[in-house]
Amino acid sequence: MQWQQLVHDIRLSGRYTTSAEAERVVLAVLTVLGGQVSGDERCALARLLPQEAAEVFTRQIPLTEPLSAPAFVDAVAGHLTHVSAAEARWATGTVLTLLARHAGDELTRRILARLPRGYALLFGLADLTPAAAA
After folding, report:
1. I need a surface site. Which of 35, 36, 38, 113 has the fewest CB within 10 A?
2. Res 108: pLDDT
C-alpha cells in the first residue's frame, strides 16, 4: 500500500471531505498507536505501512503501560484540533479498522492481545472476551 492510497482509503471510509483532513486523521492515530504497540507486532505492522506512515508510527517510543481504549481516543483527540469526543472516536475507528483489514486477522489479534481490553471495537471487531465472574 502506498501513502496516497492509505489517505484515499481513509478519506472514503471516514467520509472526510478532503485528503488533507484524512491525512491529519491518519497521522494523529498513528502517532498515538506508535506509543501502544511494541515487540514483534510493532515491527510487523510497520512493515505493512507505507514508508511515510511507518516513520510516524515507529518514531514514537512505546509506553511501558498502554493506554486504556478511552484514553487512546482522548489522546487522538489531543492531536486533532477542534474535534468532539465522537469525532475522535470516529477517526480512531476509521483508521484502526482499515489497518486491521490491511494487517489481517492473525496480526490484528496479536496486537489486541497486547493491549488492554476495549481496543477490539476500535479495530472494528467484537470483543468476545467473557466478563469475569463477580
Report:
1. 113
2. 97
The stretches in the chain having pLDDT less than 70 are 128-134
pLDDT of 132 reads: 54
Do residues 87 and 95 make contact, with C-beta atoms less than 8 angstroms apart?
Answer: no
- So what's the pLDDT on residue 67? 97
CA dihedral (18, 108, 84, 70) in degrees, to 10, reads -170
Question: What is the value of pTM for the model shown?
Answer: 0.92
58-86 in b/e form (b: 16+ CB < 10 A) is: bebeeeeebbebeebbbbbbebbeebeee
Neighbours of 116 (CB within 10 A): 15
Above pLDDT 90, what percent of the chain? 92
Distance CA 69, CA 75 (A): 10
CA atoms of 88 and 72, how far apart (whole Å): 10
Q: Is 8 helix (H, G, I), strand (E, B) or coil?
A: helix
